[in-house]
Structure formats: C-alpha cells, structure tokens
Amino acid sequence: MSLNETVSAERTHIGFFGMRNAGKSSLVNAVTNQDVSVVSAVKGTTTDPVAKAMELLPIGPVLITDTPGIDDEGELGSKRVERAKKILAGTDVAVLVCDAGAPLSGADKEMVQYLTSRDIPYIIARTKADLLSEIPGNKENEIYVSNVTGYGIEELKNTIGALAKNAAKEKYVVADLIPKGGTVMLVIPVDSSAPKGRLILPQQQVLRELLDFHIKAVCCQPEEIKSALASLTSPPDLVITDSQAFARVSADVPESVALTSFSILFARYKGDISLLAKGAKALKNIKDGDKILISEGCTHHRQCEDIGTVKIPKMIEKYTGAKPEYAFTSGGGFPDNLGEYALVVHCGACMLTEREMKRRLALARAAGVPIVNYGVLIAEITGILDRSLSPLPECK
Q1: Average pLDDT, 10 consecutive residues per value, the chain (396 residues)
Q2: 58: cis peptide before it, omega within 30°?
Q3: Would the pTM of this model clear 0.85, i.e. be above it?
Q4: What is residue 99's predicted lDDT score, i.e. its pLDDT?
Q5: Are residues 283 and 346 in the same domain?
Q6: What sign for the dihedral angle of Cα 306, 307, 313, 318?
Q7: Which residues contact 258 (CB under 8 A, 6 or more apart)?
Q8: For the chain, the helix, strand and coil percentages under 3-state DSSP, each to the nearest 5
Q9: Residue 53: left (phi > 0), alpha (psi -120 to 50), or beta?
Q10: CATH code, domain carrying 94
C-alpha cells in the first residue's frame, strides 16, 4: 500500500486549533506548502473542519485538519466549536496556534489543560513572528513562526514529527500472533454485501501485514474451508474469518486449529478486547424496551441486509428473546452521554483512529454501560467466544 493509499485511520492525525484570526489556515498552508485552507483577514473564515490527507516529511502519511476558531460566538459558533472539539478527540498531535503579539487567551489556556489532561502531544505555534520587533527564543512546547517569511516552519514540522514518533507505538493486527514463515487461512465471503471488485479494509490490512512479515496467507470462501484445509500439508497457525461466517467456519475448522475473526482482531488493535468481551456477557440481561446503541465508524450505503441496522438487531432478538429499542450512529457521530443505553454495539472501528475508539470505550466505561463490537457479539451469540479469543495473549 503506497503512502497515498494509506487509509485515514492509519495516518497520523494532526489538528490545528486556536482562536479566530490566529493564523491557523495560513499556518496549515505554510506547513503543507499547499493551499489547503481559504485564508482571509475576516474572523471566522474557517467555518467547518478542512481535512487534507497527504505525505508530510519527516512524518510520512498524515491527515491534517484545520478547524474553526475555539472562540467562535453565537449559537452557530458554539456548534462550530463543538465540531472542533470532536476533531480534537481523534487527534494524535495538536498544534495550538496563537498570535505571537498577544498573551494566551482564556480559551487557549483551557485548550492546553484539555490537551494535557488527555495526554495529547501538542506544540504551541506563535504566529505572525515577522511583526515583532524582536523574536524571542523558543520555549518548551512553544515555537515562533511566520507564515509570511517562512521563519520557524521547518522547525515546527520537525517538532510535529518528533511528537508523532514519540506518541506512536509498534502494534500489529495479527503478525505478532504468528511465527515467521507460518500460515494463516483467511475466510472471506463474497456475497451480496461484499463490495464489488475489492476487499474490505480489515481484510486488506490483515493480508498486507501477513505479506510484510513473510507469513503465508491462504484465502478461501466459507464453503471452501474444508477443501482448503485438506490442501495444506499441515494445519494453519490461525484461521481468520468474517464474523458473519463464524457458525459455518467454526463447524468446519477442527478445535485443534486456532480460530478468530477480522473484527475481533481489530477490537484488539484499536481498543480494549477484554472490555468488549465483558460487554458481550451483558447480552443475557437485555429486556423488552431496553435501548441499544449500534454505532459504526464509517458511513456507507446501507443495503437491505445491512449488518448494523438489520442483521445485528435480528441476532440480538433471537438470542435474548427480547424486543429492545435501537438507536444508530455512523461516522463521527457518537453521543457523549451514554447513560440511557443498556448496551452499546460498535463496529470493528477500521475507519477510526485508535485514540477515537478508545475515547468511545472510555465514555462507555465511565457511564457504566457495557460495550461490545460486532465480531465479539457474533462470537458470543454463536457460542464460540472463548474459542475466538483464545489466540489472543490478552485473553489467556
């Protein structure tokens, strides 16, 4: 996968925040060396977040977002501020943009407290340094820059890169579970819900990671699993299936062969698999009229047998014998207050950053609301949750 093809969830998310007219948009353009944002002397020119996926040296593939001013006013302005805060929740590195000729405002100081409390790496960029009679020396977490002369821009980029590198940790979807030279079987249904001519993101990412680590991959459809296993001279180290095929695949894969799903692997990769496994056990407590939130991290065209709005509710009702009520969210939408829900069911989060998914898990934990993802829920309903978690060291 080339840098230009890197999905947004796997890019370093860099957010530019600050007061209106602090020079955020001009700084974004200077850092990217592109006209990403519209620039104007009028306060509040940026009314909606503007995101640009690109390669930024020395960091690599990034998603840079210019946000509305955190001091925007009025009813509409407060909504813009809330949108900026939602961007902040999924940000890996924050750039707080402040006018070099003015002290930090109350809103700036609140932003610093927010970033610090949530352990989000940040740098304060003091813009319009060219208007100062003398440019002070940089302090810790603070750099003077000029969007006009280019002063300090390279240093700012290098600092952002260093913050991103320090914040990043080596992690894998599956490669750390398989010995080098091992074999993994991928069970990938090709049915009416499968996108035409391509694999879905979790399948792509798993397959590419296996290739990167020189682990052999054998791909088949659910109805081919027996013949695919028979064609191997020795059993695979792991079988990974689409969660919706769990029942059939688990019946055809011997108990001696480790089995899990793409969704469970992504639950481990992006969040807290132990918390989600506990959430699955809450299914048995669902009663008539309980509210269940079903949330997806992406927006897509929903089909007649959509997994989130159709299949998952049917599975829950068949398993529990109850008739709960459902609420649905997708993309960036996710309520901050989960207190009204008896259960949250989330997708595999392949299109969300790890930070954003962990924020959602933290909201559920703080509200005392059990949360589970699609794959873990389906494994519980199928009766193979323990088996599907057994390959994961976190669950032993």
Answers
A1: 59 89 88 68 57 79 86 70 77 93 90 89 94 89 93 93 80 92 94 70 91 95 95 96 92 96 90 92 95 85 68 94 95 89 91 86 95 93 93 86
A2: yes
A3: no
A4: 92
A5: yes
A6: positive
A7: 237, 238, 239, 390, 391
A8: 40, 20, 40
A9: beta
A10: 3.40.50.300
- Closest by CA to 123, choosing from 87, 153, 152, 163, is 163
Domain limits for position 186: 175-264
The order of strands in the sheet holding 12-18 is 50-56, 60-66, 12-18, 93-99, 122-127, 142-144
CB 280 within 8 A of CB 379: yes
Rounded (10°) CA dihedral 385, 251, 350, 306: -100
Torsion of CA 357, 359, 363, 369, to 10 degrees: 30
Look up residue 310 and give its DSSP letter: I
**Cβ-defined contacts of 105-111 (< 8 Å, 24+):** 105/19, 105/71, 107/19, 107/70, 107/71, 108/18, 108/19, 108/70, 111/17, 111/18, 111/70
3-class DSSP assignment, residue 338? coil
- Of 96, 83, 82, the residue nearest 51 (C-alpha): 83
When divided into structural domains, the chain yields a total of 3
In angstroms, the CA 67 to CA 305 distance is 37
Whether 378 and 292 share a structural domain? yes
Contact yes or no for 53/8 (Cβ under 8 A): yes
Helix (H) or strand (E) holding 241: strand 238-241
Taking the C-alpha atoms of residue 77 and residue 166, their distance in angstroms, rounded to an integer, is 34
Q: Which amino acid is it at 101?
A: G
- Write the CA distances from 313 to 57, 187, 310, 321, 384, integer angstroms: 45, 24, 6, 11, 19
Number of H helices, E strands in the chain: 13, 14
Note the pLDDT of residue 88. Answer: 81
DSSP readout, 43-100?
TT---S-EEEEEEETTTEEEEEEE---TT--HHHHHHHHHHHHHHHHT-SEEEEEEET
Do 180 and 159 sit in the same domain of this protein?
no
Residue labelled with tokens 């055809």? 252
